[in-house]
TrEMBL record, chain A:
The lineage of its organism: Bacteria, Bacillati, Actinomycetota, Actinomycetes, Micromonosporales. Residues 1-15 form the signal peptide. This is Uncharacterized protein. The keyword Signal applies. Keywords: Signal. It comes from the Bacteria. Gene3D superfamilies: LigB-like.
């Protein structure tokens, strides 16, 4: 059963070696790290990392992000390259000193909603107490300088994700328009569906730790915990 | 794959021929109200022609006229791009019968119109997005720049682009474009390749292609670099748009040392000086005057 979850975005600059001293990137990393620290501290039997990628797949437990593809130095310890979002989730676990069991799953950009929910259920069954780290991004069209340029629909789209999580209304994430998400370059849609299904009908408490778009891409960092029975 | 290098030879542009040691300066003249560096300074035709006079005076070899900014923004359709570029190309040709005129466009419709009024070179920065552009170059015996944009559509920004080996991708794509251009009839002596810094690349990628530019030069296709005041310079130095000249010139010097032959720039005079320094260091030209310690 999933007992706690953390949501983080998955830009390559989450890896400090790629973005250097950029202060906005550093602030985002700190927020992600602090959120993941709470996930580790919740002492789950296992932490599952989920991120969107080309296809739905399970990755080896020691898979890592291949940062050299983004300009980082080639590293010999990347024996099993993971997709970006999954690899960055694994990196956050490593940076927080998490050495327990981990399950690395990608969910395909085109995975239907039913497949996302099946995956959420499967992850939930993987241990009595599962911590879930969802790596999912908002839109990439928030500003004129955004990777995808400005689209006026981007800010309200991201605001609805934030509202759903702030209000502990995770089911509302299912209502996010997938086609619109694609138009707005919101790559995190399928991973958000897994978060939406992670707690079933249980009550949750949530805390948004970061919500901004310093580079025109919507980043949201939040912690979600099952309410005490 | 990259195959055997071709034989190095002169670069032919318009009626001129430039041997392999010549380093050419291509001056940017934008016919846009919103390009990233000049912000519409040469949007009006009079101002644009003034800039042409100025850059010719400063030693530009090539005038590169563009009607569409690289960044996303308000739509510029074919008709509008033609309206912005064609009369101006004709005017520059009339004023300077021998200067090499380049037009920065990815559209074959625009290419046809500018070649008809005297353009010598088609600067296809978006990496062969419109396959018919090369056919127009062949038809008019124009030169063609085969650039690497990573396969992204025109006027888009890179979003988490990743390469197993960025230079390998640059070589694969630009050489494929060059070979295809030659196959459709573009004079091989009129084909250049361009790694296209910042296009489909993050700053790490742009730094790497600079560091490894000799791999492009080794193909013996003439290499053009477009570095001027770009974001990779800004990010490397944490410098705003107005403070990127030193970084641009440093990158220019390194690229020239590694064998780039054409430099597309905003600051012609400063670039010319940097390139003359490199040429003198390589002993390809003598210093202008030498009396120090010799008197």
């Amino acid at each position: 059963m999933i007992v706690s979850a953390v949501l983080c975005p998955s830009p390559p600059l989450l890896a400090a070696e790629l973005s250097g001293s950029d202060p906005a990137a550093a602030q985002l990393r700190e927020a992600c790290s602090a959120a993941v620290a709470t996930l580790v501290a919740s002492a789950p039997d296992l932490i599952a990392v989920v991120g969107a990628a080309d296809r739905t797949e399970t990755w080896p437990e020691d898979a890592k992000a291949n940062l050299s593809a983004y300009g980082g130095l080639a590293r010999s310890d990347v024996t099993h390259p993971a997709p970006l979002a999954v690899g960055l989730g694994a990196l956050l676990l490593d940076e927080n000193g998490y050495a327990g069991p981990r399950l690395l799953r990608s969910v395909g950009y085109d995975e239907p909603l039913s497949g996302c929910l099946d995956l959420a259920a499967e992850i939930s069954r993987s241990a009595p107490r599962v911590g879930l780290l969802v790596m999912a991004d908002g839109t990439a069209r928030r500003t004129l300088k955004a990777p995808g340029y400005l689209d006026e629909r981007a800010t309200p789209f991201d605001a609805e994700i934030q509202r759903a999580i702030s209000d502990a209304d995770l089911a509302a994430l299912h209502a996010l328009d997938r086609d619109l998400a694609r138009e707005l370059m919101a790559t995190g849609w399928p991973a958000l569906q897994i978060l939406a299904g992670a707690f079933g009908d249980r009550q949750v408490s949530t805390k948004v730790r970061y919500a901004d778009a310093p580079f025109g891409v919507g980043y949201l960092v939040a912690a979600i915990n099952a309410a005490k029975e | 794959m990259t195959g055997e290098p071709r034989e190095a030879g002169p670069l032919r542009l318009g009626r001129q021929s430039f041997d392999v040691h010549r380093r050419l300066v291509m001056a940017i003249v934008n016919r846009t109200p919103d390009s990233f560096y000049d912000r519409g300074a040469t949007w009006h035709e009079d101002a644009a022609m003034e800039r042409v006079h100025a850059v010719v005076e400063e030693g530009a070899d090539i005038i590169d006229i563009g009607g569409v900014p690289a960044a996303p923004g308000s739509e510029v359709d074919v008709a509008e791009e033609i309206r912005r570029t064609v009369p101006f190309v004709a005017a520059v040709r009339e004023a300077y019968p021998d200067i090499v005129i380049s037009v920065d466009t990815w559209r074959h419709e625009v290419a046809r119109e500018v070649c008809a009024v005297g353009a010598d070179l088609l600067n296809d920065t978006w990496g062969g997005w419109d396959e018919r552009l090369a056919e127009v170059a062949a038809e008019y015996d124009a030169a063609l720049i085969c650039a690497h944009a990573g396969g992204v559509p025109p006027r888009t920004r890179p979003f988490r682009v990743a390469y197993d080996d960025v230079m390998a991708d640059v070589l694969d794509r630009t050489l494929a474009l060059a070979r295809r251009a030659a196959d459709v009839g573009v004079d091989p002596a009129r084909i250049l390749i361009d790694p296209a810094h910042d296009f489909g690349k993050n700053t790490w990628h742009s730094l790497e292609i600079t560091r490894r530019l000799d791999e492009m030069v080794a193909t013996n296709w003439p290499v053009l670099v477009s570095l001027s005041n770009k974001d990779f310079v800004g990010e490397t130095l944490d410098a705003p748009l107005t403070d990127r000249l030193a970084g641009t010139l440093a990158t220019t010097a390194v690229s020239a040392w590694l064998g780039a032959r054409v430099f597309r720039v905003h600051q012609v005079r400063e670039t010319r000086q940097a390139l003359r320094m490199v040429s003198a260091i390589r002993r390809e030209i003598p210093p202008a005057r030498t009396v120090r310690g010799l008197a």
